[in-house]
Amino acid sequence: MVQITWLLVVTLAAIVKPTLAWVPSHSHQTPPNTARVTLQAEAAFATVGRALASAFLTASIWTAAVPAFDYGAYAMHPPSAVAKEMASGSGSRVNKDAESLLRYGLPIKNKDVRQLQGTLEDIKTDIGTKRKAAALDGVKKSKTLLAKPDKYTISCRNTKVCTDAIVQMQADLDPLSNALKDSQESFTGSDQERAALDSAYDYQRRVIEQLTILEEQMVPAGYKTIVPAAYSDLAQLQGRATVEMVLKKADGKSPFNVEGQNYPQAKLVMVVDGYAAPVTSGNFVDLVLKGFYNNMQIQRSDGFVVQTGDPDGEADGYVGPGSKTVGQGKHGERLIPLEIFVRGDAGPFYETTIEDEGRGGQATVLPFASYGAMGWAREEYDPNTGSSQFFWLLFDSDLTPAGKNVLDGRYPCFGYVVEGADFLQDVKEGDLIVSAKVVSGAENLVQPK
């Protein structure tokens, strides 16, 4: 099998070799131009189709055997047979829901709430595919799972907050069930069916919002992701923060067009996760608070990523005092180390990729599995060259087969767009970030002393 894999690698490399290199630029740090590689591969292998081309791309990335997991070592992120929990490492499908990925990324131990989460999220999928009977079964199962609140409240910091969330979930499951039954009694494709399914979706959303409150209460009081003391002179985010960015078109007048609808501006709401990437997230939140991204242009938009963070002038990033460990760039840029958090570890490892650690194929706590996943850019061969440039991944599951993500473990995923991700499809080079602000969680930023 290894010989066959390498044959595929060599074949693909011979065809797409001119595009395997990074986009040439003196200042733009970029993730691999995988989308362009894949598209050329598709053209070359037109007779065998898109799926096989993606498989060839995958072969060029993953050639080593996946190491066995040490189940005894798993701490706050225990292993699971559920593919959604191991989205970047294995499984037949990819969990692309940003809010679900953030919930799975929380450092909590309660297995019962994970079972509840999977059931409630499956209801959303069933509503979307009109699997009404399956959705009703999910509601019934959810009621059973919620019948013993003590299984959840025992893990909560504030029992009352969790109890109130559970009571609200139980109250919303009844109208959710009724809406699903109404949709069953309606003619397929009718306005009545559409209205009933919309109502069911709204109630499912309300239940999920309470689930998020419940799970966030399960994070142990005072929990901090372990960061080596060597990086104590870098800003760190201890928890999560929400950042809002407003963008306008380059000419200041043209609208953003999303699926035929025009909008005068694009608003992106992002959750930045200091549990999974405390140094990377801390650096980003610090720069947002400094106003660094205000009035900055988008510098790359190629169908694979949307990228920004490269200031005017010679510097490739934010110019400021460097840390003792990583130092500064050639033009005085403040640099941060590459930060990778593998599921099951006690904390992230630094300054090396997952392949360099001999752990290729293992799941990261936050995978690049959602449209609008946020990653930190760096130079190709130096893990410690990230400064202020970051990208939003325009995730396409056809180009990223389940369990074969080409970015996980090579770049830190430090958050997701949770509102407004669709705007990214019409964000172009030259468009302007009018404002960037931290709307919650700024108190979780710890500056170096």
In short:
By secondary structure, this protein is an alpha+beta fold.
Approximate helicity band: 25-40%
State the end-to-end distance.
53 Å
Work out the number of β strands: 15
Radius of gyration from CA coordinates? 22 Å
Roughly what is the average pLDDT, rounded to an integer? 83
* Main sheet summary: 9 strands, antiparallel
Order of helices and strands: HHHHHHHHHEEEEEHEEEEEEEEEE
Q: Which structural category do the helix and sheet elements fall into? A: alpha+beta
The gross shape turns out to be: globular
Which residue ranges are poorly predicted, with pLDDT under 50 across at least 5 consecutive positions? 1-28, 32-75, 78-91
Q: Give the strand order, joined by hyphens, for the main sheet.
A: 6-14-2-5-13-11-12-8-7
- What proportion of the residues form beta strands (DSSP E)? 5-15%
Tell me what the structure shows.
This protein is of the alpha+beta class and 449 residues long. 33% of the residues lie in helices and 14% in strands. A 9-stranded antiparallel beta sheet has the order 6-14-2-5-13-11-12-8-7, with helices on both faces. It has a two-stranded antiparallel ribbon with strand order 1-15. It has a two-stranded antiparallel sheet with strand order 3-4. The N terminus is likely disordered.
